[in-house]
Amino acid sequence: MTELGFLNINKPLGMTSHDVVNWVRKHTNMKKVGHAGTLDPMATGVLVICWGKATRLSQYVMGHSKTYIAELTFGIETDTYDAEGKVVREDSHVISRADVEGVLPLFRGEVLQRPPMFSAIKKDGKKLYELARRGQEVEIEPRPVHIESLEIISWDFPRCLIKVTCSAGTYIRSLAYDIGKAVQVGAHLSALTRTTIGNFFTLENAVSLEELAKALEQGKWQSYLVSPRQALYDIPAIVVDDVQVQHLKQGRFLRLSDEYPSLLQVYDSQEHFIALIEKHPNYPHFWKPSKVFA
To answer: Would you name the residues annotated as active-site residues?
Structure first.
């Protein structure tokens, strides 16, 4: 039986990311289950579940860029920057699609973004949303993010659909809020769907919990598991012999050509995932085991 893999789940509206993790944990009888990038309850779409030992690889999936389809509603600001928050400002001025198009260049490329107060980011050891619920306001440092692409795909004032491809760590709620500020009428995020994580996990190949439940009943659910080779497509893979496999299991270094990149996936001759190895900073030609799965 496979001991690790990833599930590309189409998260339904209303469930938290942790709800989905618990569902998978319960129905597959696997304790080690996590996710690679939170979606808020109001959001839908691609949620990558790390199953079994794949929980140790979540950081590599989380680091991939992400694409979203986001609905912005202009004229209303909320304290959470989304539709679930308390309304804190309303503005009845009418704006045009051209007004919004005119400010979008401000948000493309490398930008500094201030995360929302209602977020899980920690300040002095406490999560911001916990402080926000107590009515405490703290200074939140802006963070650098990269907006690879940003475009309007539909306009029906006061609502607007945008498509965003961005780096890990980007808050679409903050983007909605900032765009609203830029056009001076305010805005909030009223709907959100994540359509991709990296080049492999897409909405088109995501599975619903209903489909997964049916596959579980038929004993075929593991056909939905995505292998590390697929999920970590941007990390080159090599195949090693049995002696080298034993060396890695023992924590020993591998001697390789310097032509290889600094991080590698390692497989045995049967295509079993053995380890991630990284180039040793002090010893040329040697790669050390970073995470061993054999």
So the answer is: 40
